[in-house]
Structures are given as structure tokens and as C-alpha cells.
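Below: protein 1.
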Amino acid sequence: MRFIDEATITVKAGKGGHGCVSFRREKYIPRGGPNGGDGGDGGNVIFRVNPRLASLYDFRLKRHHEARNGQPGMGSQCNGKKGDDLVLELPPGTMVFTVSEKGEELTADLSALDSEVIVAHGGRGGKGNEHFKSSTMRAPRFAQPGEEGEEFTLRLELKILADAGIIGLPNAGKSTFITKLSAARAKTAPYPFTTLSPNLGVMIDDVDPDRRLVLADIPGLVEGAHLGRGLGHRFLKHVERTRFLIHILSIEDINLEDPWAGFELINKELAEFAPVLADRPQIEVINKTDLVEEDFVETLRRKAIEDGRNIFFISALHEKNIEEAAEAVWRMRDDFKANDPLARTTYALKKSASGQDEDDEDYDESSFEVVYTRELE
């Protein structure tokens, strides 16, 4: 199973059934008259949210989806059966864009867990000849044909639903952090770009088990990520729905001459990708404090206070001071509402280093595995 957050598909609703041309023929009943039934309506194509899904992988395997046609009408005023609807299940957070020659238009945002939308309506069934009898037309020998169902090219884009997005430079300890706060078992290793796809973890309140918080670990960002450098640029859009961000910086990446340069670099990339993300509330965390002397940590702590920054100094690996950061995460979760995604139809991530648009068929981001997580018991 691979993590796929974009797919382009074609959907076609069912065609309506033809109306029937028929006449009543019974013994001792002359001129029984027309009795052709109506054709059945074509089936609709419906998108429905399935909370168990976490990827659009199936839509990369099958790109054309078609609902059933309606059955034609029959004699004796028997109407044709309606075509079965085609129900396609999508992960929560999927945005549906209709693609046309004029561009793209947002059709649906399936963010609610009970979301359901008809994206292509089935064609109407044709009327049988019994509908066309009149005083001047006693024996109509024609009926209506069924109408064609709607057909669209759709672009599906998944934007993960999470309360908090964990961002930072590569190898900052983001995966270790989400592992300590939730039941997620993300891959961790001492080299950059260990995380190749977003990891989801669920924090559960010890006092109230129904109080939960979803964390999304976004692959590490580098300078120029909004232009397509590194890996994180493919997943920047997944922080759009978050209430706030947890910004983690490794203490190894800090220079006392400009200690907060790592934070500013990532914030600049967020602003370049979407200015609204630069204003998203953040919890700043400096990780891996176990790798340096305590005096160095105290110097940074005093510098943060002087600069008016509320920074948490932790060691996620050894769970040092991680509870303080967790409490701040809960507080911020209660203070802010979920954000709406940005309905953009053109992305910098689809541009190559030369600035030219890549061909959609060649553009593939399917080489990332899904990391499924379980919730704490």
C-alpha cells in the first residue's frame, strides 16, 4: 500500500433506459391503446467518506468509474428498473475538483466524517408511448429515448485532517516526538529524510479517554521546499487544515550567533507556499537537548526569554520535559478551531526546477508507503 494524495479519474453516470412502444392486446378488448412503460433512470456516481481510508491509492489503480444504466421500459405499463448507484469511498479530507477546458473548479470538500455527495447524476429514463396518447393521436408509435448520464474528469486531492501538524528541518526528531505522544510507531533513524510520508498519531487524554487529538508528522522541509526541493514540498498542503503547528528544531542545528535561524527558514517556506500558513499559531520546540551540555541549554533558554519566545526544550528520545510540551499542545488545541483548506488549482510543487509545468501523466508521487497507526487502549 502506498500513500497517494492526488489522483485524476473519470466518472460517468448511468444512461437512462428507453421508453417502450407497446399496445394493449387482449381478447374482447379492441383498440386497447398504448401501454408502453417508462425507462428507468441511470445510476448516480456518489462519493462517500470512509474514516478507515488514508490514501487515494485505489484510484491510481482504476481511473474510470461508471454507474449502471437504467433498464428500458416494457409493455403493460411496466417501468424499467433504475440503474444502481456507484458509491466510491474516499478518505476524510479529500477535495474534489472538476477539470474542464476552462480550468478546475472545486466541487466538494469531503471533510466531515459523514460527508456524501453526488458528483455525476444519472440520465433520466425516457417516457413510454402511453404518455403521448391524445384525442387526436390514439396510437402513438414512438417513445422517448433515455438521456445520457453526466460524465466528468475529476481531480482528487487528499489533505490530511489533523489538529496539529509537526514540521521542521530533516532529522529534527519529529517522528520520535509523535511516537512519544501517541501510539504511532513511525520509522526513526539518524539520517535525513527518514520520514517519506505523513504519519498520523492520536493523543488520548488520561483523564477523559473521549478527548483526543490527532497529530500529523510532516516529512522534513528544506530551504526551497516550496519550489520542489527535498521531500516535504509534496506534503506542505497537509498542514492547511491544522489548527496549529508544532515546530521542532534540533539543538544540533543551532548557532548561538543566530539561534532561531532554523525556525525562520521553515516559516519562510510556509509563507512562500501559502502566506496564510505563516500566520498559523505555532508551538516552538527545541529537541535533542541530551546531546549538549546543560549550560548550553540554559544559555538558549535565557536568549529565548529575552527575545520573547516561549520555547520548550526537550529530549524526545529520553522523554525529558515532553509532558510540558504535551500540555501546551492540549491547551492550544482547545483555543483554536480547525482551518479550512486552500482551494488552489495550481501548485508550485507541479513545477520543475526550470519552472515549467510537468506533464500530469508523468507527475507521480506514489513511491511513499503508508504508515498506519493504532490508538492507545
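Below: protein 2.
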Amino acid sequence: MCDAASLAARLGPELTAKIHTLGELVELAEREGVSLGTLAVVEAQAREGKSRKEILDGVYAQFDHNLRALELGLKSGRSFLLGAVGSDLVAAGEGALIGDRFINNALVNTLATEVGNHEVGLRPCAGTGDSCPYTGLVKAMQQEGLDDEQIRCGMALILKIGSIFRSGKQTTGCNMEGYGAGAAVTAAVLTELRGGGPRQVARAMVLALSPTIAVPCTPRVMVSGLCATHIGGAILVGNLAANLVLRTSLPVDVDVDVMIAMAAKVHVDAAPVITNINHGYLLPYFKKNASVDAFVAPSVREHEAEEVSRVLEKSREEVRRMLAAARPLTQCLGDVVVGGSSIAVGSPTNMARIAHALAKGSIRSIDIELTSDLFVRRAINIPAILMAAVTGAKTDDIKAYRGIFDHPGLKDLPVTVTRIEEPEVQRIRITATEQSVYLDSRNRGGGRVGLVAAEPSLDAAVAAAGALGIQLAE
């Protein structure tokens, strides 16, 4: 409840002296023993020079149009991309999507709001995409019969977080709109509604943002159906994040400001690249408007119509190549990989196993080069690489993994670990008394290794991998 009558006067000077980040507001809310939603209202009072009632009324008023659009989506609305999904779900009855009543209502409302968006438009925050889960949450709170002031404080928290994504969104990208912003807001609101403190709210937001990083937008906003799982996923991911924080001891160390800043940076840098790839596959499936296409040359329209078959044929050949390289169904899963990642640990370990098999005599030194994303995960992959290089241990040898730094063969052995910028690269050099080994390879998922060059020879490395049962990749 927002019951801090004198808080605004006391904190006013501090809140107006500088712009507080979300992480700083979390610290301030913890210090004062108030919820983040309460502090969002207090900050608005101080910055806008308005009373508490004026802020709460103003917050509610901003949702007025969007709530009307939601009602249209629940009743008679029909979207050119989502059809009548809102009224379909209403007709399906309680629990149409998920057993939890509140979350089901939030999902149905969110999808209905998007239908309303395609009928009468929405008031956007970062975009109209995140306005859908925002509005769906607000309506779900109303349906749950929550206290009006509690709802309005929840709305204030929604808008406070949403305002950051509104500023951070510079190009197309659902990670800063419907999916990312929606998931973060959902996590924050649900964590607070369920009794979580400011620090828990921040941790839930970090968890919710993680799977949304770099998710594109444009290719789906003109393709039937795809948007539904993005904005609906925001509710589900946010709910999962809130429950993980509130019900488990899951460690979450990343500061919420760091996560939001990264999301915005990835959004700007990656969106054009990702969107360009998506266009190559999904553009033929974009919805058309016959009245608009009448202005386009017939040859262009004919070419676009042919693109559907071309893209489908191309995609099937690409999938066929993947299946040709796949293992039989009864041997599909690879070996157990300690350390938690088949690509970050399994592949480098198997590289080192190949090197160990080729080396002869006593090992004099080991030099390891890892691409940046492997280097930053060296805490989990270096123990595995060393156990394989020194003892030949397989990826499933947990005893060797945990005990490698106490192994006699590693004692006083010179080891270097170097970061390189070239993507996917993992290299190892084992200097030995009788035969030294050098492998230049590429990191691959499932514990696979892509061999590029080798000493004493590439053929010997390929043969060693075959003898060890290590799957090589192109």
C-alpha cells in the first residue's frame, strides 16, 4: 500500500537533486522500508510538483484509452494478424491458456489488447507492443479485486519502468518493447504484489530480461500469429522470474541497471543485423494490403509471390543439411558434460582430448587461446580443458574436473590462457618432450569440434577424434 503521506516532503530534495537510476531507487526504497511502487509515486510528486492524488489519478488516466481498446479486443475486435484471439479465449472459458487464474487473465487481456491495438490503436510507451502486457496486467489486477490504490501504485511502477525502455528504444526490437519491457514490468509488478521487497523486484527484472535480449520485432509485426507468443511470453517469463526470486534461493548478482543498459546497447547494435536475416526468411509471409499493392508494379508483386516458394525450398534444404549431419535418433544425445555447458565446456574439452591423444612424452607447457565469449567463461572451461590435456579425461569425469588443480601432472606446469577476438576460435598447444601438438579449432554446440588446422597433421587429429568418439563439425 502507498501510505507514505510525509515521505514526499522528506525525500523531495534528495529525489530532485539528481536523476536516480532504477538501481539507485531500489537502494533508496530499501533504506526507507517502502515498496518500489510507492517510491515511484513519491518521486513523481517531487519532480512534477503534484499531490499524491494528482499523480495516482494521472497514472490511471494514461491507461484509459488502452483499457477501452482491451474491452474491444475481448468482445468484437478482429486483428489483421491475430484474428479474434481475444474473444476466442473468452469463449474458451476460465483457464483457457494456463491454470493460474490471475496469469490466465493477464494473458487473455494482453492478447485482447493487441487485437484492440490493431482496431483502434494504443497509447504507446516504448511502443504499442509493451502497452499490451502493461494493460493486460492492469486489467488482471482489477479482475482480482485488488484495492484501487494498490492497483494505481502498480500502474505507477509499470510506467516508471516503462519510461526507461521508452527512452532506450531507438530502433526496431521487441527486446526493448513488448517482450523485453513487458517481461521486466510483469516480473516487477508480480514480485511486488506477492510481497517481495525492492531488491527482489530488481532481481526478478534481471531474470526476466535475460531471455529477451536481442529479440527482433519487425519480421513478426507483419506476419500472422507470431506476435502473440512474444507479448504473451512477456507475461509468462515475468511470472517465472517473480516466482524464482520469491520461492527459491537462486543467485542473481547482476545489477538491474547493468541489465537494462546492456539490453539497450544490444538492441541498437544487433537489431539491424538480426532483422535483415529475418527479412530474408519471413518477408514473403508479410501481410499484404490489396489497395496499397495496386500502386506497386505488377512485376514486383509477381516476384514477391514467387519468393514464398523460393524461401521454402531454400529453408528445407538448409534443414535437410542439418539433419544429414545429425546422429541417429537412438544416439542423438552426446556425452555428459561437466561444467554446465556443452558449447562453452564440452567442445573445448574435446579439443584438448584430441591434443592429449596426439602428444607424446612428458608435457612441458600448455597454451590455450579462447575467443572472447569462451574466455569470459574460463572459470568453467579451463578446469575441463586442463583435465583433458593432462590426463585425457572425458567430458563426464567430474572427479577429474574438481581435482585437476591438485593433480601432480599440473604441478609447476606452465599454463597460459589468452583471449582472442576472432569469433568461435579455440586453440591449444601442448609442448611435449617427444611430440608436441597444436590444434586450431572452432567451438561448436553439443560438444562437437570443428578442426581447422593441426600439428603434426590434420589427418592425425581427425583420426584421433574418430578413435575417441568425438563428433567433428564442419
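Strands lie at 363-371, 415-420, 425-432, 437-443, 449-455.
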